[in-house]
């Protein structure tokens, strides 16, 4: 039996272990040989103890690779097919699924890839057949590994429902915030990205088109430089997940605040009368439904989402990879600082060049 390396969560920290490669135990299983996996904010939160995950699970969920083997019920995919993994499970049978709300499927326990089911920071992963989607021949694995975060972004952009003349403020210039700004700009919205970390702000400026203004913090809360969105943004997308109160202070009347970032213990105190009298809408979009993952795959063929990937590391260099995202796995002598925007862990260098 083939052996693989896998990044396993042990005592709250990732450890590289050698394991037997997963096999297709069920008729609808697809075994994917992983090319590369993106490190998500969720993965970072897990190793920092800010997001819960199952002890002993293989981490990772933003991945692409090549089909290795399939179960007897799989007819659409064959060994050798290039695929991207959709890690967000839906059963198709529960009430939310039947109502067209598969993103809120109630049968997720034990099926969240990289959280409570073995994930993609490994040489191979097994997923049900509906969760491995064929890639266009022209799409690199580098770009395909960013399809999953793009799907997260599309869910929140759809929830924001921007009007043609809306002014959009994206708060947080990490990979998700930068992708948000890229998508809003692609749709023609006047877009400003606010990021206080100077390294990430500089990276975002290099990645985003000239029409997107990237600014740093100017004072407390979400204060913007003079002249930037002087009448307030019509849409605020908070990718940090902790700035709802500040977002409500600056959003224009009749505007929308999208709470996108997920922080396990985040809380907010909201004055309700201004919320009502100013006609402000607050929304949390939640996970993406299946059709938006497919939309992200289509859009990725035209949008240069792979530009957010600033660093790649072999799976064996996972410590350096997390350190580049201000998440050192060992005691540091200096405060943790970002050195990267988006980091990919490469499981198979031969595949990842494709």
UniProtKB/TrEMBL annotation:
Pathway stated in the Swiss-Prot or TrEMBL entry: Metabolic intermediate biosynthesis; 2-deoxystreptamine biosynthesis; 2-deoxystreptamine from D-glucose 6-phosphate: step 3/4
Gene Ontology MF terms: oxidoreductase activity; transferase activity; zinc ion binding
EC number(s) recorded for this UniProt protein: 1.1.1.329
Domain Enoyl reductase (ER): 2-329
Catalysed reaction equations from the record: 2-deoxy-scyllo-inosamine + NADP(+) = 3-amino-2,3-dideoxy-scyllo-inosose + NADPH + H(+); 2-deoxy-scyllo-inosamine + NAD(+) = 3-amino-2,3-dideoxy-scyllo-inosose + NADH + H(+)
SUPFAM superfamilies (alphabetical): GroES-like, NAD(P)-binding Rossmann-fold domains
Cofactor(s) required, per the database record: Zn(2+)
Keywords tagged on the record: Metal-binding, Oxidoreductase, Transferase, Zinc
Domain of life: Bacteria
Protein's job: Catalyzes the oxidation of 2-deoxy-scyllo-inosamine (DOIA) with NAD(+) or NADP(+), forming 3-amino-2,3-dideoxy-scyllo-inosose (amino-DOI).
Family recorded in the similarity comment: Belongs to the zinc-containing alcohol dehydrogenase family. DOIA dehydrogenase subfamily.
UniProt xrefs under PANTHER family: L-THREONINE 3-DEHYDROGENASE
Name of the protein this chain belongs to: 2-deoxy-scyllo-inosamine dehydrogenase
Protein's organism: Streptomyces malaysiensis
């Amino acid at each position: 039996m083939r052996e693989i390396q896998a990044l396993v969560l042990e005592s709250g920290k990732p450890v590289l272990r050698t394991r037997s490669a997963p096999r297709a135990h069920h008729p609808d299983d697809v075994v994917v040989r992983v090319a590369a996996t993106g490190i998500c904010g969720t993965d970072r939160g897990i190793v920092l103890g800010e997001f819960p995950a199952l002890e002993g699970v293989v981490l990772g969920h933003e991945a692409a690779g090549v089909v290795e083997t399939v179960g007897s019920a799989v007819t659409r995919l064959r060994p050798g097919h290039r695929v991207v993994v959709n890690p967000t499970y839906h059963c198709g049978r529960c009430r939310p699924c039947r109502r067209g709300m598969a993103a809120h499927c109630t049968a997720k326990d034990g099926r969240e890839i990289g959280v409570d089911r073995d994930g993609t920071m490994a040489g191979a992963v097994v997923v049900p057949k509906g969760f491995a989607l064929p890639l266009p021949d022209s799409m690199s694995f580098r770009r395909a590994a960013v399809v999953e975060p793009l799907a997260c972004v599309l869910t929140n952009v759809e929830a924001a429902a921007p009007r043609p003349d809306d002014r959009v403020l994206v708060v947080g210039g990490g990979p998700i915030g930068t992708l948000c700004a890229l998508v809003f700009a692609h749709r023609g919205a006047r877009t400003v990205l606010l990021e206080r970390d100077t390294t990430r702000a500089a990276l975002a400026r290099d990645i985003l088109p000239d029409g997107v203004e990237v600014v740093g913090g100017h004072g407390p809360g979400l204060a913007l430089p003079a002249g930037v969105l002087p009448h307030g943004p019509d849409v605020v997308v908070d990718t940090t997940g902790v700035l709802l109160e500040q977002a409500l202070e600056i959003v224009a009347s009749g505007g929308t605040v999208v709470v996108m970032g997920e922080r396990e213990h985040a809380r907010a105190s909201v004055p309700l009368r201004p919320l009502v009298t100013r006609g402000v809408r607050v929304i949390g979009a939640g996970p993406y439904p299946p059709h938006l993952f497919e939309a992200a795959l289509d859009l990725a063929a035209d949008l240069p989402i792979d530009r957010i990937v600033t660093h790649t590391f072999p799976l064996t260099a996972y410590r350096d990879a997390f350190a580049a995202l201000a998440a050192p796995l060992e005691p540091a002598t200096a405060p943790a600082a970002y050195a990267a925007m988006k980091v990919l862990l490469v499981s198979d260098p031969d595949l990842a060049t494709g």
